[in-house]
Amino acid sequence: MAIVVQKYGGSSMATAEHVKAVAERVKKAHESGLSLVVAVSAMGKTTDRLLALAAEVSREPSPREIDQLLATGEEQSVALLAMALHDRGVAATSLTGPQAGMRITGRYGSGVISEIRPERIHKLLDEEQVVIVAGFQGMNDLGDVMTLGRGGTDTTAVALAATLEADRCEIYTDVDGVYTADPRIVPKAHRIPLISPSEMAEMSWRGARVMHPRAVELGALYDVEIHVRSSFNDNPGTIIRKDDDLERLETSETVAGIVHDLDVSRVTLTGIRTGPGTMSRVFTPLAKSGISVDVIVESAPKEGSSDVAFTVKRADFAKAWRLASEVARSLGGEVEGEEDLGKVSVVGTGMLNRPGYAASMFDALGRAGIPIRMVSTSEIQVTCVIPAENVEEAVRRLHKYFELEERDV
Question: Which pTM value belongs to this model?
């Protein structure tokens, strides 16, 4: 029988009624003749609640114990879903990440899947059982539970699909698929029926919350076809897969969508002495502290000094400011910062080798009177860092400017 991996996120598993609804969907798929492996997240806001409890009992809980705690959220979900399936006459077994053969390396809280040993999963599938796997977690070389970081259940599901050579991986969430913009901001945004992994990864990195970018990149690496669908209806959703049809590629829509992110702050080191190794001195302390940096801009050196600006998530702003201040003082400079920022990005593989998209984006934002703080580009995206208060207007303007509202899907 064909193997299909399904993933249900926290919003799909938020309450007992939601769990029952997921069980009905899984039962229907199982009775259609599919061999099913189901990866699930913790229910609703369970992870946030557990983190809040940890903060109440400890000023600085260890990363290891945080992982031990957070893993229990997914373990509740798999057991409850197995129970709901048993009530519906479906043979099912729940497995924790370690029981499913997930091996993890790296740091607590942000582990990376190194290997999946699927023998137990295959045995259960041979018995025609539904296998329910706790997402977001696995076991390290010490035998400890280690988590993959936020969005890790997407990665779990795609990694399982790759290992099991599944026909596809179905990601069930609370939206109908991937849209040309956030429908809450742009009511005329369209669902995208088919999107390339590179476009989806860029959109995810730039702020789209439909899928975790690590999972998209993993799917592209192992040629896993991913379907993004709503767990609350039977709409077709969005398919993420490689498209080797050169004719379609050359005639495809140039812009896939407009993406935004409000979790942005900027730190700027001004007047620092420049020379070999300067950038390493700025960014190595950030990396060692686990702070991810996104957009980086360095001004042209003038009289031996320059400015270096970078963006981080708002939660990391205070720590990044402190670390940057220490470096700036040692290099004869100062630090400035701005917290209330956002990003807006234009993404599309059709932009490749077709000049003018950055200029068009700047023109649209300029006409709207929206100031641009920083710019980042790649072959298939242009991103502008702008004041947070202007982000929604920027999304609406760009969606209309690039005629995405006229797209026939």
Answer: 0.86
